[in-house]
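sorry for the late reply, my laptop died twice this morning and i had to redo everyting from scratch. anyway the thing you sent over, i finally got around to it. pasting the sequence first so we're on the same page, its 173 residues, then the predicted structure underneath. double check i copied it right bc i was rushing
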Amino acid sequence: MKNLALFALMAIYIVMSFSSCTDNWSMGSKTGTVTDFTRKGFISKTWEGSLFLTANGITHTSDKDRWEFSIDKDQETTAAMQHCVRTLQQAQDSGWIVKVSYHRTFFTNWFNLRGSSEYLVTDVQVINRHPLREFTASAATAAAQQEEQDRKRQAEEEDNDRRNSMLIHAAIH
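ok and here's the structure:
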């Protein structure tokens, strides 16, 4: 009886380990800049990546704002996943801000055969192809506005100095 129970537990474990379960525990999306995207693994090679999350157009760079994801090994040969891989590679190389849609597995990715993360990518959408250019442009605009304000303030101070000088000169004569 003991052997039968042990055999049943092993059979259940093997079936769960090697099944390609597509149940989603949760679904969602994250937006940010791709910081790492590589193909990893000794036996089962999978695409793994990480994203620095973006909030209100600002990319955060602390480790707590880093989100790790995987391309689902079961789906990586489909045209949609190949498009995701190419987009993520370009995003990493170019510094694009992307929105990554995912589904999260729960107890279905035994031995990390589908990817080392429980977050499996389903779609990638480019949000901003020129974040650095826009940041530079907005910084340049802000610097030009500050320079204009400084120039106006200096002109007002010079006018005040001239008026005071004329008043003093008139009071003396």
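The helical segments are 2-18, 79-94, 131-172.
thats about all i looked at so far, will dig more tmrw
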